[in-house]
Amino acid sequence: MKDSKIPEGPLADKWNNYKAKAKLVNPANRKKMNIIVVGTGLAGSSCAASFAEQGYNIQAFCFQDSPRRAHSVAAQGGVNAAKNYKNDGDNVFRMFYDTIKGGDFRSREANVYRLAECSANLIDHAVAQGVPFAREYGGYLNNRSFGGVQVSRTFYARGQTGQQLLLGAYQSLLRQVNTGKVIMHTRHEMLELVIIDGKAKGIIARNLETGALERHAADAVVLATGGYGKVYYLSTLAMGCNSSAIWRAHKKGAYMAGVSWIQFHPTCLPQHGENQSKLTLMSESLRNDGRIWVPKKTGDDREPNTIPENERDYYLERRYPAFGNLAPRDISSRAAKERIDAGYGAGPMKNAVYLDFSDAISAQGKDKIEAKYSNLFAMYEKINGINAYKEPMLISPAAHFTMGGLWVDYELMTTIPGLFALGEANFSDHGANRLGANSLLQACVDGYFIAPYTIPNYLSGELNTSKTDSSHPAFEEAEKSVRNQLDKFLENKGSLSADYFHKAIGRLLYEKCGLSRSKENLEEAITSIRLLKESFEKDLLITGDDTLNSELEKAGRIADYIELAELMCHDALQREESCGAHFREEYQTTDGEAVRNDTDFCYVSAWEWKGKEQLPQLHKEPLEFESVQLTVRSYK
């Protein structure tokens, strides 16, 4: 297994020890160095702006028409930081422990502690940018609580926190675009990584407006392209979200880690029909005041307000009294699915549970609830035509966040020297389950506070190497590979659309590698995925040509999804335990709780691509815990 490069010293000193010894690049030399940043969400924009501010030359790429459309805008509920403004016992170590425990002890201590340690700086940075966090009457920043914790450490801007943080990063990025230090390539998609002498030295990108393939060279490449939850088709992610950048890097030698650790968000709007293309997220912050329940009678068709209190099952409060409605996402989602599968589901399709605010409105008044959640209630009414101030919301679990991604070391560098992965594109901080409001935190901390130290440590060793030019044969070879794939898609004479295969792989994964998994189902899934891959290669039909063509874009992304789906199933199959979001039906207690196996599986599963017809190779990174004790993860 590759070296994770964890610094020496006590846990609380590791990051300071690293920064004290990290190599630097002087200001004059920074002007000579080029960095490619793929993705301009929170992680990518913050990284590009930070490096441009230092004097590096940046080329930033996104497939949207503006960085403002990055999916970071969809994160609603808040961002965590251990500032203890509520004086309720919070501190860096408690936040670190909550995150380690929330991830079911399947993440590195050093990375997680650094996340908690840097969190306070992020809030100060965002406030300085003008991010309009909610404030108390006296002017202090307000906090609320999220699932998996017993303190209030989540800073928020109503239900628009991701959007407001992204606007702060975007204005920092645009400042550097205007100075000329950042060249912004919108409507461009990375289709291949270029490696020269074993190091990442550039990318092949496709101009999505013209279809032209472009070569771009650099001294280092940063992937900040988000997660791959859209592999399930029906998910909370935007339709454009995809896995192609990290998957193309994986096929060039970058390990993928924790691939089957997929989070299902407990508070999404339920599916309402077969022709739906995505699901809508309702912020987890609603669980601060909403109570979750189902009828005690199966198949109950009564209106929710007519069901008496004694005929309601507040199942989270019943099963997890210490945390109740704020139980972590994986536990809350599985509990909802268990009730729905048992016949207690609500709504027209009986595929939902109730999220009820009547008690909170009675206790606090409608004005207080409106001040905290008005945009979420307005969005719910716009979509469903239901006033959630007067009757409960309908919610259900949906594929959301991917804890897995490219394996990175402590420096956020992949197994390919010079290739870095930030935010949800890497696996590093969340273990087998992410606590709510930690995704915005990781994306910002990676881009603003970690990469600006770790990437120069690598670049300092590149100063005396010869400059890479896009005329190098490696660029020609990479471009030819991309062109061959595009031509193959266009030459196919099948009869099925790319969307057909996307829906098929999504349905298969949800049933076989979703909220619960079993050995039998996973083995069946691998067989089915291979058959689907054969069908995709001969039955796909792409209309149009190689210029402006969204169907051609989809084909490449879905080809990657199909290969990724098989790796997800291999990853879930080899991990014979239940941990976090990975729930193997064979490994549970009599009352349905997860059974973890620390003796045999206390490691990160890192996978190496061995070729199209070859099985992936597993590498194990042992997880060593010095500052916390491995305990049974209980929220009861």
TrEMBL record:
Pfam families referenced in this protein's UniProt entry, alphabetically: FAD_binding_2, Succ_DH_flav_C
Catalytic activity: a quinone + succinate = fumarate + a quinol
Domain of life of the organism encoding this protein: Bacteria
Domain Fumarate reductase/succinate dehydrogenase flavoprotein-like C-terminal: 502-635
The protein's required cofactors: FAD
Region forming the signal peptide: none
Keywords, in A-Z order: Cell membrane, Electron transport, FAD, Flavoprotein, Membrane, Oxidoreductase, Transport
Localization per Swiss-Prot or TrEMBL: Cell membrane
GO cellular component: plasma membrane
FAD-dependent oxidoreductase 2 FAD-binding domain mapped to chain residues: 35-440
Annotated catalytic residues: R329
GO biological process: one example: anaerobic respiration
InterPro entries in the cross-refs: FAD-dep_OxRdtase_2_FAD-bd, FAD/NAD-bd_sf, Fum_R/Succ_DH_flav-like_C_sf, Fum_Rdtase/Succ_DH_flav-like_C, SdhA/FrdA/AprA, Succ_DH/Fum_Rdt_flav_su, Succ_DH/fumarate_Rdtase_cat_sf
EC top class named in words: oxidoreductase
NCBIfam families attached to this UniProt entry: PRK07573.1, sdhA_Bsu
Family statement: Belongs to the FAD-dependent oxidoreductase 2 family. FRD/SDH subfamily.
Protein's UniProt name: succinate dehydrogenase
Species this chain originates from: Flavobacterium cerinum
